[in-house]
Specification:
It contains eight helices and no strands. It is mainly α. It is flat.
Length: 210
C-alpha cells in the first residue's frame, strides 16, 4: 500500500510539473490573462493622436531657423489682433469696450473736440514748468494748469450727463448707469485722439452713425 501511495504522489507531482506555468495563476479568482503586449502609456497615445512629431534639428542653424519661424508666426498673430482691436472688432476688444452702447459713446465723444483732449499735454506742461528755475514762470504755469483742470472737470461732468441722456434715448431697453457712462466718456475724451483705442470711426463735426 505504501508503494502505491508513493507512485500516485509521484504521478501527481509529475502531472503538475508538466502543466503550463500559468495554469495555476489562471485558476485564481479575478485573474485576467495577459494580452500579449504592454498597455500603451497615455502620453504615447496622445502623441499618436496628434500625429507624427517633427524630427529634432540636426544643427544649431536649423534650430535657430525653426525658432525664428515660430516667433514670426506669433508676431503676425499679435499684429492681426492689434489691427482688429484698433478697428473696433468686439471679439478683440477689452471687456470694458465691448457692446453697441460703448461703441455709441465713443462715436459721440469722437464727433467733437473736447477740452479734455488737452489733459495729457497739460500734464507735460506742468512737468516742464517745474524744471524751469524761475519762480514767476512756475507760478503762472501752475495757475494756468489749475484753471484748465477746473474747466476740464466741469466739461467732463456736462458731457457725461449729455451722453448718458443720448444713450438712454438710443438704447431704451438697456440698463444705463449715468456714473459709468460719464466716467467712460471722461476717460475717452482725456486721451489724445491718435492714441485712442479703438481708433475713432468718425472725425470731429461728422454726424453720428445710426
Amino acid at each position: 500500500m505504501r508503494f502505491l501511495r508513493r507512485n500516485s504522489a509521484e504521478n501527481t507531482d509529475a502531472a503538475v510539473e508538466e502543466a503550463e506555468p500559468g495554469a495555476e495563476e489562471s485558476t485564481r479568482k479575478g485573474f485576467t490573462p495577459a494580452k500579449g503586449r504592454a498597455t500603451p502609456k497615455r502620453r504615447d497615445a496622445e502623441a499618436r493622436k496628434r500625429g507624427p512629431v517633427a524630427p529634432a534639428p540636426k544643427t544649431t542653424r536649423e534650430a535657430m531657423r525653426r525658432n525664428r519661424g515660430s516667433k514670426d508666426e506669433r508676431r503676425e498673430a499679435a499684429k492681426e489682433r492689434r489691427e482688429r482691436m484698433m478697428a473696433g472688432d468686439d471679439r478683440y476688444l477689452m471687456p470694458r469696450d465691448r457692446g453697441p452702447v460703448k461703441a455709441y459713446i465713443r462715436d459721440v465723444v469722437d464727433s467733437r473736440r473736447n477740452l479734455l483732449g488737452l489733459f495729457m499735454p497739460l500734464a507735460i506742461l506742468v512737468f516742464v514748468a517745474l524744471l524751469v528755475p524761475n519762480f514767476v514762470v512756475q507760478q503762472y504755469a501752475t495757475l494756468l494748469c489749475l484753471i484748465m483742470l477746473v474747466a476740464m472737470i466741469f466739461e467732463g461732468i456736462v458731457n457725461g450727463r449729455r451722453i448718458a441722456k443720448l444713450v438712454r434715448q438710443k438704447f431704451p431697453k438697456e440698463t444705463v448707469r449715468g456714473g459709468s457712462i460719464g466716467w467712460y466718456a471722461f476717460v475717452r475724451s482725456s486721451q489724445i485722439r491718435k492714441l485712442r483705442v479703438p481708433k475713432p470711426r468718425i472725425r470731429p463735426g461728422d454726424p453720428i452713425p445710426n
